[in-house]
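Re: the request from the purification team.
They wanted to know what the chain is likely to look like in 3D before they choose a buffer screen. I agreed to run a prediction and write the result into the notebook, where they can find it.
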Amino acid sequence: MRYNLTEKGSKFGGLHCPPFLSSGDMKNNDEDNSIIRLDNVYFAYENRDSTATVPEEAEMVIDGLTLSVKRGGFTAVIGRNGSGKSTFARLLNALLIPVKGEVFVNGLNTADITAVWEIRKTAGMIFQNPDNQIVGTTVEEDVAFGPENIGIEPAEISVRVSEALESVHMKEYKKHAPHLLSGGQKQRVAIAGLLAIKPACMILDEATAMLDPIGRREVMKLIRRLNKEQGMTLILITHHMDEAAMADRIIVLDNGEAVIDGTPAQVFSDPVMLKKCGMSMPQPAELLHILLQRGVSIDPTGVTGKDEAVTRIAECLDAANGMSGRTLPDSGGKEAGSVSSKGDTAYGIGDRSAENENRYPNDKKGTAPAIETRDLSFTYMKGTPYEKHALSGVSLKIFKGEFTAVIGHTGSGKTTLVQHFNGLLKPASGRVLINGTETEGKGLKELRRHVGLVFQYPEHQLFEETVLKDVAFGLIKAGYPETGIREKVGEALEAVGLSTDILDKSPFELSGGQKRRVAIAGIIVTDPEVLILDEPAAGLDPEGRDAILRMVAGLHRSKGITAVLVSHNMEDVAKLVGRIIVMGEGNIIMDGKPCDIFRQTERLESQGLSAPQITYLMKELKERHPYLNDNIFTVEQAANELMQYLPECVHDTVNKAEKE
């Protein structure tokens, strides 16, 4: 059932927002100029005769979807994991065929087997995991694969490959083997391969999930340019709300239905509505809604980006300060960590940074580190034409109980570094010590009981026939008593927020978020003293991401685990950790508290990174209002800072209520 924002009694409880066109209305208005059209489409992952009717009891992944996509438009599709987004994308270029209803691409029916070739030339697709579509032995060969298959002349292929690699900043890697690239670099190659085909419509299924902040920004800038200058139709499936805000139109899927459909300003007008769909808001919009919630008379309607938010907050500050007649300080200078933490909010995982910064080791002389590297270096494919220096003389100490983030651009050496922490990789030179023990030799097996590593896609670590067997695998290998295994596994599942009801289920029958939790349970069940997480929330919707990160933060607090988080999401890093290590070109570029790292925005950007969105917003506000503290890196901190100067700028109804 579609969510009609103008009607009470909808599936979301009668929430009210400004009215806008429904999917059906848009279809009627744009049908003559639509490049993609879905008419009453159903799809379920069951085998059935294509002529059969759809059983009432079948669980539909796409459930009666009717909509059209305008030629030359930029449409973002968002929704929680399992809402049908990826299935929707695969229906658009005939990778899947509806069990009922029809999908048309440029007037061609995807069910027509004779039209499939032309459909896929028209609507090209980038998958979430680049490994699913990279086929060449070199980058250059892989990018050329598509143009070759559609019959482009060799001379033209060479030009297209060069232009495509240049556009994604991968030209220098054209002779490299794709399997030796980082995840983010592979994704750029996959995007280049599609650009070389020059499709009329580009479908991107979480195509920026593996990229660093600057890489994401560059890809978004690139596809926006293709849309504006070349008229390419874009359909972007994303879990990044700031990316969705760049589109002309946002469709929110839930249980296979388009429940919300409108412009970014309309869709982001109600945080409660989005939360019911498992979504979040861009940080600028979130800040305005928090200020409104706290009584500030500020209008968040239509705000999706930094510039609009700065203008409205500055106007409110001007009004409040003018009314108060107060003498304001010349400038802010407080540490961001001094801003109080409010814990979990309605919008995310809560701000834990101030709590964790107190554990930062300003002086740990005489204390043995939990993790230590001494002049660590590592080279992939040494002595071959594909030789790549990944680490060069890295020396660091991480102390017990710290929550540390390792960040850096794609290919900076982050994953290579953390894979040394439990002996998955052995140093080419230098040393790695965990609690004073070398990560090699006879002690390696024992070491891995104390250091748990959660890979980028934890669910790929699942392999057993039941959840019980999968989570218990590490216990069995460690010789844990058989009589206590079921109880121990139950405790691990409880720690990650899962019920023991799933113990005898196949892990492959679970949802994406549940699989990820089971995989993490399989790591923590052995009670590791050190927990390393390499992009544990990659590919999860905002609701699922917050749940996983909240769980990790809880484990860190309750068990005193030394946690190391590798992430490209600066907003998550800012909320969670007390220390940040910045990697660049295989070495440590920066190391310090979040407040010290994120204030150096230009230096971060030179390393392919960025500060959180809210930091840039506060810096711009400080230019207009110098008394503000701009050393801010979470929305909660920004709201607390602004509320110090907005006590008079409140609704009349709030003032009246306070007097009463």
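For the purification team: The chain has three domains: 23-279, 285-340+614-655, 361-592.
Please add any questions underneath this entry.
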